[in-house]
Amino acid sequence: MYRERASRLPGAVVWRNTLSGDADGGRVLPDGCMDLLWHEGRLLVAGPDTRAHLTAGGPGTWAGIRLRPGTAPALLGVPAHELRDRRVELADLWGAAEVRRLTARVRAAADPVTGLEDLALRLAAATDPPDPALRALAAALGAGRPVGAVAGDLGIGARQLHRRSLVAFGYGPKTLARILRLHRALALARTGTPPAETAARTGYADQSHLSREVRALTGLPLRELLRGDGR
User: Fold this and answer.
1) Cβ distance 90 to 138 under 8 Å?
2) Angle 117-119-120 from CA coordinates, rounded to 5°
3) What is the set of domains in the chain, with CATH numbers?
4) Sign of dihedral through CA atoms 86, 54, 114, 176?
5) Of 116, 132, 182, 207, which has the fewest CB atoms closer than 10 Å, so is most exposed?
6) Of 174, 181, 231, whose CA–CA distance to 55 is shortest?
């Protein structure tokens, strides 16, 4: 069972997912975010996905804090593109002694979700805030503005914007725009809006374009995806 709530860290979400082992696992949709994870006493990092990530179906509980796009690289000190489509142990990124100390703090918390949230808050307090231009880029693309128009508003050239986006988001602004548009479309479709209208209202050329993008990014047709629980 998957549950989530807004975090005390602005823009983040904390979550817990308990797998019974009698299913095939879950499907985590690309969303431009990175997660700090806790599983069986280990701290891990989920990098930004470019396609749906299929989780293992074995029994167990996962906890995590999902950091809004562009936030995690500053907290972790690792460019997002180095973790694209990967799940890695935090010990692979940081020194073993520091990871043991942080692991002990999460283990000592009332529950792993609270421990991860407290850890992320400490990291954020000790880190410079994310690049405000890239935060504005993510917000504008999330609202459906074209990449070129946003780049012009920010006064950033295409090549520089692409380089900075790779560091912050794990991929260029056009890929980020595709992923954020997917989530706008899914949110609309989940309200019962017909696919053709959903496509028109979220900037797709037509229903076929929407269908191709949904399958490319999630691995499932739209109708089947809507029956599931992928975020």
Assistant:
1) no
2) 65
3) 2-125 (no CATH), 132-227 (1.10.10.60)
4) positive
5) 132
6) 231
Q: How many residues make up the chain in this entry?
A: 231
List phi, psi (to 5°) of 17.
-135, 115
DSSP assignments along 168-219, one per residue:
HHSS-HHHHHHHHHHHHHHHHHTTT--HHHHHHHTT-SSHHHHHHHHHHHHS
Q: Give residue-wise pLDDT tens across range 163-218.
A: 999 999 999 999 999 999 999 999 999 999 999 999 999 999 999 999 999 999 99
> Counting Cβ atoms within 10 Å, is residue 141 exposed (0-12), middle (13-18) or buried (19+)?
buried
Q: Which residues contact 130 (CB under 8 A, 6 or more apart)?
A: 70, 71, 74, 168
d(CA 21, CA 219): 22
Question: What six digits make up the tokens of 172?
Answer: 């260029």
pLDDT bucket at 26, cuts 50 / 70 / 90 = confident
pTM (2 decimals)? Answer: 0.91
The residue assigned the tokens 């142990």 is 89
Report in angstroms the alpha-carbon separations of 91 from 4, 94, 103, 201.
26, 5, 10, 44
Residue whose C-alpha is closest to residue 112's, from 61, 177, 181: 61
Tell me the residue type at 160: Q
